[in-house]
């Protein structure tokens, strides 16, 4: 994420003598256009000429009464920016995924509008959430609003209601629902502030991280556009929104997660509020921390840690062993918490970057001989970054490809200017879409246990692949032995999520003779057929295989499985 001081430094390079207007990309909805015009007017104050370019997004192409996923309104505009069709992209900050595209830079946060949610009643009516009659229908497009509202008022009938602001207002006034929860900022920017019946208190429904803020992206290498856009950056807004997004990231959530956050500044002191709710509202918690505004990232991590502990202690929640390495395990446990499942982190594997790696050093020295270099995990990218720094090698001399944004960010931090990304974050899609020509030479920086399928698929496309092992997977790390014993002593475990055969072997090895039968009796939810085969071979009595790899979808699948198996009231079972 961009630091708070970057736009100020960039702005010092700005020039008002433009050869052409700066092209601002936006959606075509009334609210998106209103936000783009706010950006335009702010630029005009500094003498910066602009024009607005409307981009159709995946969210725009959906039927008005259907929901959208994370980044549905962002991806197409970002692509137009990457392609050079626009020079800047305008987004609602709350819609931007936490895994930002490393090719782009959020160069400006425009001064924030009201961040809270608003209760909207039929035209001519007034009231508050606490005044609403039991049983009335409340419409919202947000899992976050749904979870917190159900937690506060379980007697209300909260239903999905999607579409643009004007569509939802029309359906309210037509009687489809009795009330709405909307972002207050959108209503204000559309000149509809009079429709707000109540600004929903932060302690009832904390707003989405970044709500009420407009952010503007540019291409990371476009210094001229960055200098101009940085002129309108509002530092207080940047500090607060970045702290909220840091909290969301540390909590493992995306922009559609039932997680709320709001940071407030009082001089140099920041007060950061955050909360989570399960989708069915059976559990919710809100907390706050405060400290120097310069310590925003640390405050965010502390608040996320506190609330994660609360999730784990949720009374009656199913308990699932999370066997991923610690950092990834925390993220996945947070996703499980959104569905009312307590994730118990017991890393069955650790990752060891190979130091003094002669094979990787040799490959990096010959980078110019490759047409493409690829990494398929964060660990591979971290190994490249460490080796390049140690050897003082410029790795930007070859085109790089990564399996996903998080992996690409590691490469960008190592000095790569542009990273190619597939449409979906998995090795199979990367292999099929990689822009390689017949006879092309590819360097693949991989893990010791990586599946060879990627090599086979690329060779089927007549590419020459040189694979270099950059990190090892260590099974059954000794520090996890006590964690497993404690987890079993604290009560029944309802499931274990296993993402690889090495995780299966590691977990079984962590169990001693006394508790191994208990471990093998836990239902094993396995990612991939090979992992499931390893679980059966290890002696797990109940094995379920799934091809789902995306963490958010896997968490939802886990919750649904547990709901069916143990009869727990777990949110997500019907989704």
Give a brief rundown of this model.
The protein is α/β, with parallel strands linked by helices and 575 residues long. Helices cover 37% and strands 22% of the residues. It contains 21 helices and 24 strands.
Mean pLDDT: 87
Shape: globular
Rg from alpha-carbon coordinates: 25 Å
- Strand content range: 15-25%
Would you write up a description of this structure?
The strands form five sheets. The protein has a six-stranded mixed β-sheet with strand order 16-21-20-17-18-19. A five-stranded mixed β-sheet has the order 2-1-3-10-4, sandwiched between helices. It has 21 helices and 24 strands. Helix content is about 35%, strand content about 20%. The two termini are about 30 Å apart. It is globular and about 70 Å long. Helix 5 links the parallel strand 6 and strand 7. Helix 11 crosses helix 21, helix 15 packs parallel to helix 16 and helix 18 packs parallel to helix 20 (about 530-540). The protein has about 575 residues and is of the alpha/beta class. Among the domains are: about 115-200, 3-Layer(aba) Sandwich (D-Maltodextrin-Binding Protein, domain 2); about 315-350 and about 475-565, Rossmann fold (3-Layer(aba) Sandwich), CATH 3.40.50; about 350-475, Rossmann fold (3-Layer(aba) Sandwich).
